[in-house]
Amino acid sequence: MTDLTGADAETDGLGADPSAAHHRTLTATAGGNSDAVPPPGCPAHGTAVRLSGLEYQQTPSELYRSLRREHGPIAPVLLDGDIPAWLVLGYPEVSYVTQHDELFARDSRRWNQWENIPPDWPLMPYVGYQPSVLFAEGAEHQRRAGVITQALEAIDQFELGHDCRVIADRLIDGFSGSGVAELMNSYAHQVPMRAAVQMCGMPAGAADTEELVTDLRISLDAAEGDDPVAAYGRVGERIAQLVADKRRNPGPDVTSRMLLHPAGLTDVEIVQDLISVIAAAQQPTANWICNTLRLLLTDNRFAVNVSGGRVSVGQALNEVLWLDTPTQNFIGRWAVRDTQLGGRLIRAGDCLVLGLAAANTDPQIWPEAHVGAENSAHLSFSNGEHRCPYPAPLLADVIARTAVETLLERMPDVVLDAEPSELTWRPSIWMRGLTALPVRFTPAAQ
Predict the structure, then answer these.
(1) Residue 79: is its pLDDT beyond 60?
(2) 146 located within any domain
(3) What φ, ψ does residue 395 adopt, rounded to 5°?
(4) Is residue 92 part of a domain?
């Protein structure tokens, strides 16, 4: 695996170790006492809020409102281990950050906190630099993102919808006779994961495809007793083998199109970017599917025509992107130089967490707290050059819509098998997804 510590910062053109310089600045400002309270404007200031706890995990919207009242559109926060950062809450501010890469860049090696980050830091998978499209900047990002965009543009959306219907039907066949099911793990996670690996050229139903699906689930959403690091290693090995196979025998799939693209990406670059594509297609889309099913099954506005109702399904999908967006927060951007944002002084190397969910419910854009489901100007796919590459959001919509509609068509009398208040959200400040979605329905004849 790639070194995630940022130890190569001195040789990558970003200058000498920024974390040491920042530490010296804080020490000097505090009068030489490293234990002194940091100055106002630094995200380590005493008013910073820890992004953790049950309040955040279960009712984040309430926390966003309180942060706005106390701090405005930019709030000082503490990540795991009390590492300081800024949470960008405002819709205009998130839009500004994502549209100005010259001020807020993606290469995490700029971070001024690396000397305080332990090797086993829980958020290392999110921030540890890797040579993938996620951390590339400028012309290199445009080159890498351009390859992905053109590879995805060639996907026939009608064919993808058909494939997703086949996947969904097979999964439903596995539990339709029982009359009960837990949809989060047995359905919502499975549909986009299987669709993503098929788009990349893995044969449906093959043993190694099933093993890849299992390892992807573990690496992205590990359960107790799982080893996500080992699973991620196996994912990398299998994707590397897929790239080697497609190099020898290309086909009508995303991997082959990336290999044949005139940009001439190396096999290593393609492996990294394929993993990013599959991961981005799976977990957010899975939570989008499940959050939409939850809305349809618990909100009386959708109860009358939920069965096969395309208009209602479309409204529910879009409303979820506004109010329960799968990616709540994204880490992040790193300030290229000292700058002002939302009345705050952002120091060079500071980390900014993009509060996508908070921005989507910003009272500046919804002054009466009414979100219009017909409006698609949400930031759930981010914004700017580093947003989800076109047409990824359209493909995600095909996958999610097909999954929801197929389930409702196959099980028109499906109902929640629990009280809505009993449903719990996963303990994450990053993703918005249920731990489980139990349902019951009339068993299908065997």
Answers:
(1) yes
(2) yes
(3) -70, -40
(4) yes
pTM for this model (two decimals): 0.85
Supply the DSSP string of 219-270, one letter for each residue.
HHSPPTT--HHHHHHHHHHHHHHHHHHHHHS--SSHHHHHHHSTT---HHHH
**Is the pLDDT at 25 greater than 50, yes or no?**
no
What are the two backbone dihedrals, phi and then psi, of residue 134, each rounded to the nearest 5 degrees?
-60, -35
Phi-psi region of 382 (alpha: psi -120 to 50; beta: other; left: phi over 0): left
Helix or strand run (H / E) with residue 296: helix 267-298
Residue 1 belongs to a domain: no
Report the 3 state secondary structure along 328-358: CCEEEEEECCCEEECCEEECCCCEEEECHHH
Q: What HEC string does 400-445 produce?
A: HHHHHHHHHHHCCCCEECCCHHHCCECCCCCECCECCCEEECCCCC
> How many other C-beta atoms lie within 10 A of the C-beta of residue 47?
10
Exposed, middle or buried by CB within 10 Å (0-12, 13-18, 19+), for 200?
buried
The whole-angstrom separation of Cα 35 and Cα 281 is 44
User: Domain span at residue 169?
Assistant: 9-440
Give yes or no for a contact between 271 and 239, defined as CB atoms under 8 angstroms apart: yes
Give CA separation, 227 vs 130, 193, 210, 230, 380, in Å: 20, 19, 17, 6, 29
- For residue 99, give both structure tokens: 């549209």
Q: Which of 302, 297, 237, 304 is nearest to 271 (CA)?
A: 237
Domain count, the chain: 1
Give the closest residue to 188 by CA, choosing from 83, 86, 295, 102: 295
Residue of higher predicted confidence among 242 and 223: 242
d(CA 408, CA 414): 7
Which residue, 149, 190, 152, is CA-closest to 395? 152
The domain that contains 334 carries what CATH number? 1.10.630.10
3 part of a folded domain? no
| Residue 438 scores a pLDDT above 60 | yes
Query: Roughly what angle, to the nearest 10 degrees, separates helices 190-199 and 392-410?
Result: 130
> Within 10 A of 40 (CB to CB), how many other CB atoms are there?
11
In one letter, which amino acid is 387? Answer: R
Residue 446 has pLDDT above 80, yes or no: no
